[in-house]
Amino acid sequence: MASSESSGLPPRSPSSASCCPRPTGWTFGGYLPEPTLLVVLLLFFFASWSLLLRCPTPRLTALNRSSFPLSILAVNGQRSPAETTAEEEISLSSSSSSSSSSSSSSSSSSSSSSSSSSSSSSSSSSAAAAAAAAVVCNRSRYPSEAELSDDQLTILVPGFSIERIAVLRNNTRRMSSYPFVRAIYVLWQNMDIPVSRFDEPNERFDSDGAPIRVLGQRSNSLNNRFLPRTFIETSVVVIMDDDMLADKSSMEFALKVWRENSQRIVGYFPRAHLYHPENGSWTYSLKELRQKGERKKYSMVLTKTMLLRTEYLFDYTCHMPSGVRKMIDETMNCEDIAMNFMVANYSNTAPLAVVGRLKDAGVRWTKDQRTYRVGLSLRADHFDSRSRCLNELAKLWGGMPLRYTYSKAVPA
Ligand SMILES: *[C@@H]1O[C@H](CO)[C@@H](O)[C@H](O)[C@H]1NC(C)=O
Ligand SMILES: *[C@@H]1O[C@H](CO)[C@@H](O)[C@H](O)[C@H]1NC(C)=O
Ligand SMILES: *[C@@H]1O[C@H](CO)[C@@H](O)[C@H](O)[C@H]1NC(C)=O
Ligand SMILES: *[C@@H]1O[C@H](CO)[C@@H](O)[C@H](O)[C@H]1NC(C)=O
Ligand SMILES: *[C@@H]1O[C@H](CO)[C@@H](O)[C@H](O)[C@H]1NC(C)=O
């Protein structure tokens, strides 16, 4: 692996000036023993709290909604064509390629035969995909990092299950009241239910603060949640599953931690990979990993709730090794593993897990199930397929970029 200095990423934008000096002197990713970490954190919080008390305008200020651009204020089904056309095109083209290959779902090894059989129809669709990618991957369509604000965050939630829409509506409404939430976008990916449904009075997503928009997607691709979006105005996005609710202090803490670690993915659900020297392959670990004599370590965080640089959405869609997005559409899994690979490779560090209060506000689902993939999440081979992804992605990356860390950020 080359060093993180030559990652090819644009330089990080200088943080905007604020009245409160940013506390420095604490970093994670080292190998501090847990008690030391706690003491450091306690000190940090006392320090930042006393700074906040003296500060007339805290960094996390309440949003003045009249300052929102009109395009963002247009709530629910109203989509401005300029914003969504290209995203729809690229999700459309990726869905048509995935549907042709998923029909032959006998085994993963059948992908080569299915791609050859559909080669006649794929030439026109691949031309369309290339045209869509040229638009979506035109960096100047999106604000530069310097134009984005880092004192608020944007929440992106894919929606699919109509049974869970009441929970999603309640959760988004709650989170819209957090002053550090700039906007919430529900990416509606259920092709059977038109997004216009959410314009009806008793189906609307009501807000208690930040605007909530429901954006119809043209496919159920897992890559949709990582598409770059022209309307995102913050330098950090939160990717969430539709059953997740983070309480205000947990999310505010995660945002603070991210601002001190903006190259890393910050999340609540750590997982690990494990190497098997006897057969030279990797497997996926459902939990953090504890190897003999070691403390628990992890190398990935799940998309159930993750914070990451908005710029990484563009990198995911436009700079990943070719074949990754396609693999994800074919397996209907592993987009989060791919994002962890990409960021680990760029940043040369592990993600950072925060300890916080999150609930699934609805039905309890077992770990790792993403239930908007109705019918797929229940597959018994979920973990085998996650392990297969690890090995497949390591091939595409030409090595294993994931790094372990033993540290977590713990609120005082
Ligand atoms: C991994 O990172 C290095 C250095 O930043 C970069 O040159 C390389 O292209 C990246 N690999 C992939 C597969 O993205
Ligand atoms: C919000 O912004 C508008 C226009 O910039 C201004 O007139 C108004 O006073 C602001 N409201 C608050 C509560 O700051
Ligand atoms: C990229 O997008 C910008 C802004 O929308 C546009 O002016 C430019 O022509 C586009 N470039 C290409 C190569 O399409
Ligand atoms: C949503 O919130 C309302 C009002 O607080 C409550 O009555 C309702 O039971 C909630 N629905 C779900 C599914 O949690
Ligand atoms: C490699 O070995 C591990 C542990 O014995 C096993 O779980 C895994 O399935 C093996 N992988 C392959 C590709 O054989």
From TrEMBL:
Residues 93-123 have a biased composition (Low complexity). Its main location: membrane. SUPFAM superfamilies: Nucleotide-diphospho-sugar transferases. The chain crosses the membrane at residues 36-55. One of its GO terms (cellular component) is membrane. It is found in: Membrane. InterPro entries: Exostosin (IPR004263), GT64_dom (IPR015338), Nucleotide-diphossugar_trans (IPR029044). The keyword Protein transport does not apply. Residues 154-409 form the Glycosyl transferase domain. Pfam families: Glyco_transf_64. Signal peptide: none annotated. GO terms for molecular function: glycosyltransferase activity. Belongs to the glycosyltransferase 64 family. This is Glycosyl transferase 64 domain-containing protein. It comes from Chara braunii.
